[in-house]
Amino acid sequence: MMARDRKWSILLGPVFSAVWLSTLAGAGLSPLGVRDDLHFSLEARGMNIDGSLPIYKDPNADIEDRCAALLWNRSTLSLSSHEVLIFEANFRIQGDIDGWMNMTDPLDDTLTYNQTGLEQMMEYKSGAIWAGYLAPWDKIVYAITVGQQYLMENTTLGIPAIVQSEGLHGFTDNGTTWPSPIGLAASFNAPLLTEAASTISTEAEGLGYSQLFAPVLDLSRELRWGRVEENYGEDPFLTSQMGRAYVTGVQSGRRRNVSSTAIARVAATCKHFTAYGSPQGGLNIAQVSGGQRELHTYYLKPFHYACVDALSIMTAYASYDGIPNVANTHLLTDILRNEWGYQYFVTSDAGSVDLLITLHGVCATRECAAKIALEHGLSGEMGGGTYTYLTLPDQIQNGTVGISYVDETVKTILRTKFSLGLFENPYPYPDYRSTLRTQATRDLLHQMEREAIILLENRNSVLPLSTNISSIALIGPQSDRVSFGDYVFYNASLNGISPLDGFKEFLENSSVQINFAEGCKLWSNDESEFPAAIAAAKKSDVAIVMVGTWSLDQTLLWTPGTNATTGEHVDLSDLDLVGAQFPLVQAIQATGTPTIVVFVSGKPVTNPWIQENVDAVIQQFYPGELGGLAIAEIVFGATNPSGRLPVSFPRSVGTTPVFYNYLKGSRPVSPGEITPNGTLIFGHQVKELLFYYSLNAEPVNA
After folding, report:
1. Is the Cβ–Cβ distance between 544 and 472 less than 8 Å?
2. How far, in Å, CA of 270 to CA of 305, rounded?
3. pLDDT tens, 236-288?
4. What CA dihedral angle connects 25, 30, 31 and 33, to 10 degrees?
5. Angstrom distance (rounded) from CA 241 to CA 190
6. What span, in angstroms and rounded, lies between the C-alpha atoms of 694 and 702?
7. Can you spell out the DSSP letters for 415-478?
8. Helix (H, G, I), strand (E, B), or coil: what is residue 676?
């Protein structure tokens, strides 16, 4: 077998034996099974046999013509039907760079790859490639370059992959970390979010990424749910505005060295389609109950406004009204494709096609799950499961699944790739380091950190503090901690500034003394450190107590035995402060020292006593890298607190779900309450007692 023939045998699979190659030659066919008078030769597949350029390779051709031409080229391949279907399957299954790279050690910088693993990955899973790892940047660049170069130069049609990573509130591989989306929403500043999203896209683009899994447009109407921090709040309008701002920032512009037909540089991915933020019981991936009125009034609005031009959408794990979203024809075909005219790539969430078997119970086999996900949703399959779509070639061959569903799905993915200009330039940029963690990005982040902080209470104008006071007490388990939300990588907090360091930096040229005492741990009932905290408060002019919830990075959050109170799969039955935090606030307030409480959290905290008894309350949803400095600037008046609440604060978990845009007439009129001395007054809740801070709340006595 000639070396060239051996290469194609490896690429197209073991069925291409020497005998088969001889048979092809006798029939006047090339080793690819392509008639010699058709589209391109083996020696120069970048051009037709007559020297002209195939339409799909023409960067100036219309995108729809390029999609049609590429699918036509597929149909002219005289391969076995099984091999044609493998060709199709490549476009719908997510691959992973760990197929040819060793990504187990985030510090390892070895620039070598596994050739066999590369070939095997690209044979079956080359439509989109997951590369969202914590790794040295040059290793990521090397891995992506190797993968894309293989696809462009060593496969039949030379089709590049979409390369994917997370981007919820920053590019995750040691990029700049921004406030969690609920904090970004608190700024109510959509143009600023567009600028922020643009920097996130720029950091990813230079390294060779072409798709980010964000924004999340699930309405935060169920506060027990762990992923409240990932959303832009409870309101469809605000979520629509912030979602569109993010999509615009990520996608605007073009990759370098691509044609004018490209319309975006990185694909935003709107998720989770749809109604995912209101699971029954607040439990992640649980069913969402509702009808068509709720669907169209609330849940669909952000996606319709923000995502029709987004180059990707991700489906939700849950079911809506009893139908799994990953295979919901009404949502994914009737509404998304037919009513809205959505043309681009839809992907399942990780492992969600398998949930049709294991959770939803609508299928008994992988074949069934693949069939209904494809035919009911025209979507690709992400990894994280058993790769049910690998059953599709045989199913199409035996007539169980129609090839038209495959073609339509492939067309949406090709359309996204052409729209990104990947056929012209899918590679990382040589100067990628110049786009990462720039001073301009840091300046923009600083502005966002300030605008995201909300003043909720300010009795007797205790705020802002003057730099002429002699001392402050900085107390609480959030004071000397960098608390990022979920979807950051391991050790991302090392790039952040804690509040303690932020106050030190802000006050370094003043005479204000900082008396620090942690007081307690976030996760402990131990009150043994209270005396030191009380002493610090008593000898200070003002006490600042920082408490709240906490999440973890993507490594620790999923590690058995670690603790957190927010984040994906961390759902709660209680929204009060955990452990000794609330008693700590009460102990400091009891000293008589003016007390300011700062909630650092990923969701509302239900301790109304704090609002009623301390001198000032500030809400800082999980910040970004400069959050510790920004809170100091707010407290001392260097910046005015302009943030607003994107979610309502219930008085207790028992009054949830609670949101400002409830239907009129759904709140009875006879209130009950528990008085400060514990007396029970029985009645029925009314709006005024359901929540004490609501959307757009103005600061009190500011």
Report:
1. yes
2. 11
3. 999 999 999 999 999 999 999 999 999 999 999 999 999 999 999 999 999 99
4. -100
5. 6
6. 16
7. HHHHHTTTTT--SPPTTGGGGSS-HHHHHHHHHHHHHT-EEEEEGGG--SPPTTSSEEEEESTT
8. coil
Mean pLDDT by 10 residues, the chain (702 residues): 33 32 37 37 52 86 91 55 53 90 95 96 92 97 97 88 97 97 98 98 98 97 97 98 98 96 98 95 95 96 98 97 97 97 96 97 97 92 94 90 89 95 97 97 98 97 97 98 95 96 98 98 97 98 98 91 94 96 98 98 96 97 98 98 96 88 70 78 59 53 38
DSSP, collapsed to helix, strand or coil, labels residue 260 as coil
Residue 363 φ then ψ, to 5°: -135, 150
- Which amino acid appears at position 124 of this protein? Y
Tracing tokens 């995201």 back to the chain, one arrives at 452
Question: What domains are there in the chain, each with its CATH number?
Answer: 55-429 (3.20.20.300), 454-642 (3.40.50.1700)
| 8 A C-beta contact, residue 206 and residue 165 | no
Query: How would you write 555-623 as a 3-class SS string?
Result: CCCCCCCCCCCCCCCCCCCCCCCCCCHHHHHHHHHCCCCCEEEEEEECCCCCCHHHHHHCCEEEEEECC
Query: Rounded to whole angstroms, how far apart are CA atoms 266 and 345?
Result: 13
Widest distance between CA atoms in the chain: 97
Show the tokens assigned to 13.
């699979």
Per-residue HEC secondary structure of 59-120 comes to: CCCCHHHHHHHHHHHHHHCCCCHHHHHHHHHCCCEEEEHHHCCCCCCCCCCCCCCCHHHHHH
d(CA 147, CA 246): 28
Q: Could you tell me the two tokens for 392? A: 């599709």
Residue recorded with tokens 């009891």: 590
- The CA distance from 295 to 275, in Å, is 7
pTM comes to 0.90
> What CA–CA distance (Å, rounded) separates 463 from 636?
7
Question: In the 3-class helix/strand/coil scheme, how is 401-417 assigned residue by residue?
Answer: CCHHHHHHHHHHHHHHH
Structure tokens at 454: 């909300």
> Which pair of structure tokens corresponds to residue 140?
């990521």
Residues 311 and 344 sit within 8 Å (Cβ to Cβ): yes
List the strands of the sheet with 471-475, edge to edge.
Answer: 454-458, 616-621, 595-601, 542-548, 471-475, 513-517
Q: How far is CA 252 from CA 100, 129, 202, 210, 682, in A?
A: 32, 22, 10, 13, 56
DSSP letter assigned to residue 316: -
How many angstroms separate the Cα of 274 from the Cα of each of 99, 278, 281, 397, 485? 32, 10, 17, 33, 22
Torsion, CA 302, CA 304, CA 310, CA 315, rounded to 10: 80
**Residue 490 has which token pair?**
């391991």
DSSP 313: E
Instruction: Name beta bridge partners: 164.
Output: 130, 211
Count of beta carbons in the 10 Å neighbourhood of residue 654: 11
User: Look-up: residue for tokens 């007539």?
Assistant: 399
Beta bridge partners of 474: 516, 544
| Cis check: omega of the bond before 172, within 30 degrees of 0 | no
Reading the block at residue 610, the tokens are: 């704090």
Residue 289's nearest CA partner among 331, 323, 332 is 323
Determine if residue 692 is left, alpha or beta; phi over 0 gives left, psi from -120 to 50 gives alpha, anything else beta: alpha
